[in-house]
Write a structure and sequence with these properties.
By secondary structure, the chain is of the alpha+beta class. It has helices at about 1-10, 25-40, 45-50, 55-60, 60-70, 75, and strands at about 15-20, 80-90, 95-105, 105-115, 125-135. It has one domain (about 20-135): Nuclear Transport Factor 2, Chain: A. It has a five-stranded antiparallel sheet with strand order 1-2-3-4-5. A hairpin with a 3-residue loop joins strand 3 (about 95-105) and strand 4.
């Protein structure tokens, strides 16, 4: 399982972000909120439905997906609060949304959600990188 998490981390590693906006993208905010609420309720099917096809290919069932979230994304899986920060595109053109999280441990984390537009115009989450914000407690 650790190798799979490492593989996912490497797949989602990205170049530096070039933040375009200090505000949240409403479309991104909606889908991320939807997934965070589903994860908080352990609603694997709903959380999985918000993941992009590439993510679903890596994690072929909703339960495998939720196990990955539980094991590798504790601040996402069980958070006390979250708020939306800036959005933009990275150097390769991938859209992202930054989300501040307060983990169960009381520490502040920054999650960068990468988004992928689908052929029907909707958005799905194509990756998430979470980092603890040094020196900040809730």
């Amino acid at each position: 399982m650790k190798n799979l998490i490492l593989l996912v981390a490497l797949l989602f590693a990205t170049p530096a972000l070039a933040e375009d906006s200090k505000s949240a993208n409403p479309a991104f905010q909606s889908i991320i909120t939807h997934q965070l609420q589903a994860i908080a309720k352990d609603d694997a099917a709903t959380a999985y439905a918000d993941a992009a096809p590439m993510v679903q290919k890596l994690f072929p069932t909703s339960e495998i997906f939720m196990n990955m979230v539980r094991g590798g994304y504790a601040p996402v899986y069980r958070h006390k609060a979250f708020d939306f920060e800036g959005s933009g595109t990275d150097e390769s053109g991938r859209p992202y949304q930054r989300v501040g999280l307060i983990g169960e441990d009381g520490a502040r984390y920054e999650a960068t959600y990468y988004m992928e537009q689908q052929p029907d115009g909707s958005w799905k989450i194509s990756g998430c990188v979470v980092a603890k914000v040094a020196g900040e407690e809730a």
